[in-house]
TrEMBL record:
Entry protein name: Type-4 uracil-DNA glycosylase
UniProt keyword 4Fe-4S present: yes
Keywords: 4Fe-4S, DNA damage, DNA repair, Hydrolase, Iron, Iron-sulfur, Metal-binding
Native organism: Rhizobium chutanense
Keyword Iron-sulfur part of the UniProt annotation: yes
The Uracil-DNA glycosylase-like domain, residue ranges: 314-474
Gene Ontology MF terms in the entry: 4 iron, 4 sulfur cluster binding; deaminated base DNA N-glycosylase activity; metal ion binding
GO biological process, one term: DNA repair
Membership in a protein family: Belongs to the uracil-DNA glycosylase (UDG) superfamily. Type 4 (UDGa) family.
């Protein structure tokens, strides 16, 4: 029996070199005792594993490309039996090149299950890593640390995702199975286990606010939620301390939601007539002011959207604001309140811009379309995206708002806002996070609408997009500082 001890940190080359040497020497799978380096298996045993010279008449072993991909993933698993399993498959593939397609084969089933577990672990890492900011900004780069507890050796496998996603900041991801660090130029991997750092920062509250806003008690399925966000990750997620309370109050929240569901509005003109009968006329605002423009927009009938909406939802903010945020259209709560961004998306926006150091009271906030477009569904009103004809009709009001406010920086949130502000046919994702010059000597910055973040079902994508949105707000804050 030949004993082989490997570091076992998901390195394909390490296993491949050993397997290739033993296979060339004709060493059968049952003749090798594969071990992973540990307190019980010292690397000194490797000298017993040296294979004899390759058999002269033996043909080199070959494998299909699918095996290399499978082995690369399986080797990241934490099961010590993975080495012998792969070596056994290597031998068997010489007799049956289609072995990996046999879905009932015990070895194939076991290997594919290991690979699935590794991919799931990596997916959870991308979803549940929470960076904490540490130290001072150096040469314009911020520094972050994150802690994660993987089941398998996935740090090296998953680190390139974070390098691509967070390339503009220095970060360290520490785990009990090693660490990954990025300094803007080099991605460094270490196998030494790390101890959990005791860190927190202002984004902890931001994550709690975000999670509280996306939690829908009407769709709560506890088992499905725990399958997507297993309890073992909760202790490292700042938002997780809200979960027990949210689950406990879900039933009462559903009753409250049903009680306050918006009912379909009266026809537009009937409401105007009722308002005129019941309220004395207000003094006219001076011409050429936002107040006068808002009064004109209140009776707008330029497109059919006015027929069902409760009221026009005009922009609000200082008349001399240097920054204007433009969204898509008012939602259900905005339509009732008559103010932009007061619903869940607005609360999320408030929290993120506050964390980025942006003062909302100094912003002018408006929408590309001023009336709520929806589809009645029982007592509920389901948001519908405005079409380009409706956007163009409402461009009249947006142009006048920009003419009066004269902002230096305009933030387009979502594709509808982008279409209303430019004639370009560019995809939002192609120019997201970029600042560009537009007519009037202004700067346009493009990002997503916060309501998009509230609708994402996938945990990994949700965390990724939320982090990107937060980064967009930080870029906007730097633009405000630079132009102020």
């Amino acid at each position: 029996m030949r004993r082989v001890v490997l570091a076992g940190r998901g390195d394909l080359g390490e296993w491949r070199d050993a397997a290739r040497a033993f296979a060339a020497a004709g060493i059968m799978p049952e003749e090798i005792d594969w071990r992973e380096k540990s307190a019980e298996a010292d690397l000194s045993f490797q000298r017993d594993a040296m294979p004899p010279e390759p058999a002269a008449a033996r043909k080199p072993m070959t494998v299909p490309p699918a095996f290399i991909e499978l082995a690369e993933t399986v080797l990241c698993h934490s099961d010590p039996a993975r080495f012998s399993l792969l070596y056994r498959l290597l031998w068997r593939l010489q007799l049956d090149r289609q072995l990996l397609e046999v879905s009932s084969d015990e070895d194939v089933v076991r290997a594919r299950l290991m690979a699935k577990n590794v991919r799931r672990d990596a997916h959870k890492m991308t979803a549940f890593v929470r960076f904490k900011e540490v130290g001072a900004v150096t040469e314009g780069r911020r520094k972050f640390i994150a802690w994660f507890e993987p089941d398998h050796h996935i740090v090296g496998r998953t680190a390139p995702f974070f390098q691509r996603r967070f390339t503009d900041m220095d970060w360290l991801i520490a785990t009990p199975k090693g660490s990954a660090a990025w300094d803007g130029e080099r991605l460094t991997m270490r196998d030494e286990p790390c101890e959990k750092p005791n860190l927190s920062d202002a984004t902890d509250d931001l994550w709690r606010t975000y999670y509280a806003n996306i939690f829908n008690p009407a769709r709560l399925k506890v088992k499905a939620m725990q399958a997507e966000m297993p309890k073992k990750y909760w202790k490292n997620l700042p938002e997780a301390d809200l979960i027990p309370g949210l689950i406990a109050s879900a039933e009462s929240k559903v009753r409250e939601m049903a009680a306050r569901e918006a009912t379909q509005s009266l026809p537009f003109h009937d409401r105007l007539q009722a308002a005129a009968r019941n309220h004395p006329a207000e003094p006219e605002a001076p011409a050429g002011t936002l107040e006068a423009l808002s009064s004109e927009a209140a009776v707008c009938t330029r497109c059919p959207l006015h027929e069902k909406a409760t009221q026009t939802v005009f922009g609000e903010g200082p008349g001399d604001a240097e920054v204007m945020f433009v969204g898509e259209q008012p939602g259900d709560q905005e339509d009732i309140a008559g103010r932009p961004f007061v619903g869940p998306a607005g609360r999320l926006l408030d929290q993120v811009i506050a964390e980025a150091g942006i003062d909302r009271s100094k912003l002018y906030v408006t929408n590309a379309v001023k009336h709520f477009k929806y589809e009645p569904r029982g007592k509920r009103r389901i948001h519908q995206k405005p079409n380009m004809g409706e956007v163009k009709h409402c461009r009249w009001w947006l142009d006048l708002e920009m003419e009066l406010v004269k902002p230096k920086l305009i933030v387009a949130m979502g594709a509808t806002a982008l279409a209303a502000l430019t004639d370009a046919k560019q995809r939002l994702q192609d120019i997201r996070g970029q600042a560009m010059a537009i007519e009037g000597g202004r700067t346009l910055f493009v990002t997503v609408h916060p309501s998009y973040l509230l609708r994402i079902p996938d945990e990994r994508l949700k965390a990724e997009e939320f982090a990107r949105f937060r980064d967009d707000m930080l870029k906007i804050q730097r633009l405000i500082t630079a132009t102020g």
